Amino acid sequence: MLDPFDGSAGHGGLVGHGEDRPGAASQAAFLSGGGPTGKFQRKGEQSVEKMSELRQSYALLLGCLIEAKSSGTLITTKWQYNRISSPTYVRPENGDTSAKMECPRCKQIFTVRVESLKKATVKSRTYTVVGAVLAVSLLVWLPMLVHFGGQTVDEDAASSAILTVGSLVVLTAVSLFVGLPLYLSGRKYSGIKKLRLVKSDGSVSMLTRGHKLP
Ligand SMILES: [Zn+2]
Q1: Who's near 152: CB < 8 A, 6+ residues apart?
Q2: How many CA atoms lie within 13 A of 209 on its CB side?
Q3: In the 8-state DSSP scheme, what is residue 17?
Q4: Residue 162 has pLDDT above 60, yes or no
Q5: Average pLDDT, the chain
Q6: Of the candidate ranges 36-40, 102-106, 129-133, the one whose mean pLDDT is the lowest
Q7: Quick check: 214 pLDDT over 50?
Q8: Could you tell me the distance, in angstroms and rounded to a whole number, from the CA of residue 147 to the centre of ligand 1?
Q9: Residue 58 CA, ligand 1 centroid: distance in Å
């Protein structure tokens, strides 16, 4: 297989490899930096996604806006994701560190915060587990809601029935709108965050116009 960006310490510096969408970019990351194991190949697309999975060394994915079309109120954007690797991209032992990268397309310099492997792993697992528990608890709340919501009660029991149903509605909503997103964000949590633009005068800006992390 052609392997121009093998992520090894040999080539040095910053390299980028562009694709149109995050999925393709992770696939590119997989194809280019996946290493010798057959593990990822066997497990297919899902494991490709998990390439952002946590290791001591890492690669950065930077989205660069290549097109924004507006038709009426709808704005469609097209992002190019570049994979940027460097031998210096190693997570700290503890806490956070910052890393620099250059957008291969527009040559702007950015920084990100990178968490230690331990910290990122703990966060990823916590979000995944708590999210999964919340999401699965939907299987408890929803049938209860259907059961209690469909009951007719006499006036004496009405207020407690309303309270019960109300609580179940809240629990169902939390499971659905907090649990599921939490689970998904835990699954792809990389511990790489806080993209900042380094301006020409050396100051750092939160406005990263046209750039984002995946
Ligand atoms: Zn760019």
Answers
A1: none
A2: 2
A3: -
A4: yes
A5: 80
A6: 36-40
A7: yes
A8: 54
A9: 20
Q: What separation in Å is there between the alpha carbon of 64 and the centre of ligand 1?
A: 4
Instruction: Note whether 199 and 211 are within 8 A (CB).
Output: no
Query: Ligand 1 centre from 108 Cα, in Å?
Result: 6
Residue 32 is encoded by which pair of tokens?
Answer: 């280019």
Give the per-residue pLDDT at 190. Answer: 93
Q: How far is the CA of 208 from the centre of ligand 1 (A)?
A: 10
What are the φ/ψ torsions at residue 193 (nearest 5 degrees)?
-155, 180
- Let me know how long the chain is: 214
Q: Which two tokens stand for residue 125?
A: 């697992």
Question: 105 near 65, Cβ under 8 Å?
Answer: no
Confirm if 133 and 179 have CB atoms less than 8 A apart. yes
Query: What is the 33 CA–ligand 1 centroid distance (Å)?
Result: 22
Task: Tell me which residue of 43, 46, 39, 86 sits closest to 62, measured CA to CA.
Answer: 86
Other CB atoms within 10 Å distance of the CB of residue 168 = 20
The answer to whether 175 and 134 have CB atoms below 8 angstroms apart is yes
